[in-house]
Design a protein that fits this description.
CATH class of the largest domain: Alpha Beta
Strand content: 15-25%
CATH architecture of the largest domain: Alpha-Beta Complex
Number of domains: 4
Radius of gyration: 26 Å
Oligomer: single chain
CATH topology of the largest domain: 2-enoyl-CoA Hydratase, Chain A, domain 1
Shape: globular
Number of helices: 16
Largest sheet: 7 strands, mixed
Length: 495
């Protein structure tokens, strides 16, 4: 996700002097080509589709982040940045071709209507949706809509009774903060997943709550945060930096230099700070981590970040499609442009494979000879990836639909929360070996592979799934932090 300002411009035709003639001539050539193809090409052609592909291919010649968004995809793509959408307020899964409610957003339309976890939605607007090869996209298309519009549901309850409900769609927030919690007596943890329109408000609220709970030190997790709005990155960094400290500046061939400074007193200018980063930390996340690093405000722990230092400006076209045009580069306070190299000979999006193969993600000494031109933010403290997070057999099991269904089935058989506190769940949750043995037999997996380490890993995978059912959305991130190598390194530094 790129970094761009909220301003919007329209593109029109030049109407003065030589520019008009030049532009007109080129445009006439394109129009002539399209007309000629429509009339003479061997196969039928969709003119709009061909035009869209032409624009997309043109932008690819410029840089990796200048993009074209068709009008029919613009709303859905921008949702995560806007920070909300019209819907009914549930988290769902498709369990054996049936739409199953996994969680209900408190205060939302579904919550008000009495919809609960484990409910099955079998009809939407009197149309059957069970056993028809349902997909996530089909569900979203049916349940999303304009705020205040109505949708009717037929719901099969766990006790096998059926209820009919009419819901009025509401404004459903898309949270930037995936998790915010105290993980030690005086150490807080915030997992920031994106930089949307509401990020600064969410972030201030999270900081305030943790400070009220005794937080004196903070772990800010920006791993796999792909970025978002530039001004939101500035607002987040402002919470850590003293007034007048430079946060970032931008500059381009056709855009003048712009500087952005910290303003009034932030909520956490003095407390100890660690920022977690990895190869998925990009754009706005790199602005925050770069500013913190350059001002020695905190420690950066993890692996070299993605290296996305280009600023995009959204440009709305007359048909409501959108261009995002790179207009400038951004620079950290010490003048570092973190944009990594791109061009015809570079596999821009898949350089993570090269990083893994050359040992950069597993051995710190591979970074010693790296030049700054490689892009990204280099961590102050290197932390290798956990290449042995799961055994191969467990990886093959854990990332399948069958395993996900198995975990939810386990929850339905054991719907009561086993422990009030997540920490107790982490320390004391137990599963009989026979549960996993039956899974192996049912799915024709070699039972001989069910050794102690496999049992341990499967238990952990099951716990990660169950905690979001028993607790809340953030529980998975908090639970994972208890045995996260990067978090462990951060705690060592802070303690």
């Amino acid at each position: 996700m790129g970094v761009f300002s909220s301003a919007t411009y329209w593109i029109g035709f030049y109407s003065n002097g030589n520019k008009e003639k030049s532009y007109g001539s080129n445009w006439q050539n394109i129009e002539f080509l399209l007309d000629h193809l429509m009339e003479n090409y061997v196969d039928s052609i969709d003119r709009n589709e061909l035009t869209q592909k032409s624009i997309t291919n043109l932008l690819k010649e410029l840089d990796p982040h200048s993009t074209y968004i068709p009008s029919n995809k613009r709303e859905s793509i921008n949702e995560s940045l806007v920070g909300h959408f019209g819907g009914i307020g549930i988290r769902f899964m498709i369990l054996r071709d049936t739409l199953t409610v996994v969680d209900v957003i408190a205060g939302g339309p579904s919550y008000i209507s009495g919809l609960q976890k484990r409910d099955r939605i079998i009809k939407i607007d009197n149309i059957n949706v069970a056993g028809i090869g349902l997909t996530n996209q089909m569900v979203l298309k049916k349940l999303k809509g304009k705020v205040a519009s109505e949708v009717s549901l037929s719901v099969l309850k766990p006790n096998k009774t059926t209820e009919n409900k009419v819901l009025q769609r509401g404004l459903i927030p898309l949270k930037s903060i995936a998790a915010a919690s105290m993980i030690k007596k005086d150490i807080g943890y915030i997992k920031l997943s994106t930089f949307s329109n509401s990020t600064d408000i969410e972030f201030k609220n999270a900081l305030s709550t943790l400070i009220e709970n005794g937080m004196q030190k903070l772990i800010l997790d920006l791993r796999f945060n792909g970025g978002g709005y530039l001004h939101q990155a500035i607002n987040v960094a402002d919470e850590f930096l003293e007034k007048s400290k430079l946060i970032v500046y931008t500059n381009g061939a056709h855009s003048s230099k712009r500087t952005f400074y910290a303003t009034n007193k932030g909520l956490f200018e003095k407390g100890e700070l660690v920022v977690l980063v990895n190869s998925g930390t990009a754009s706005a996340s790199e602005i925050v981590s770069g500013a913190i690093q350059d001002h020695k405000r905190g420690l950066i722990i993890g692996r070299r970040t993605f290296g996305k230092g280009l600023v995009q400006q959204p440009v709305l076209l007359p048909d409501s499609s959108e261009l995002r045009i790179t207009t400038s580069r951004y620079y950290t306070p010490l003048g570092k442009c973190i944009q990594k190299p791109y061009g015809d000979s570079i596999d821009y999006d898949n350089d993570i494979i090269e990083r893994l193969e050359n040992g950069e993600l597993t051995y710190n000494d591979t970074l010693k000879d790296k030049k700054f031109s490689e892009g990204g933010i280099l961590p102050d403290i290197f932390s290798s990836i956990d290449t042995l997070e799961y055994l191969q057999i467990v990886s093959k099991i854990s990332f399948t639909r069958k395993w996900r269904d198995f975990c939810f089935d386990f929850y339905e058989k054991n719907p009561d929360k086993p422990f009030e506190k997540l920490k107790d769940f982490y320390e004391s949750f137990k599963v009989q070996k026979s549960v996993f043995k039956n899974y192996f037999i049912k799915n024709e997996i070699n039972i001989q592979e069910l050794n102690n380490q496999v049992l341990k890993d499967l238990r952990w995978s099951l716990m990660l799934e169950l905690c979001s059912y028993y607790y809340d959305d953030q529980a998975r991130y908090i639970l994972n932090s208890f045995k996260d190598k990067d978090v462990e390194k951060a705690l060592i530094e802070l303690e």
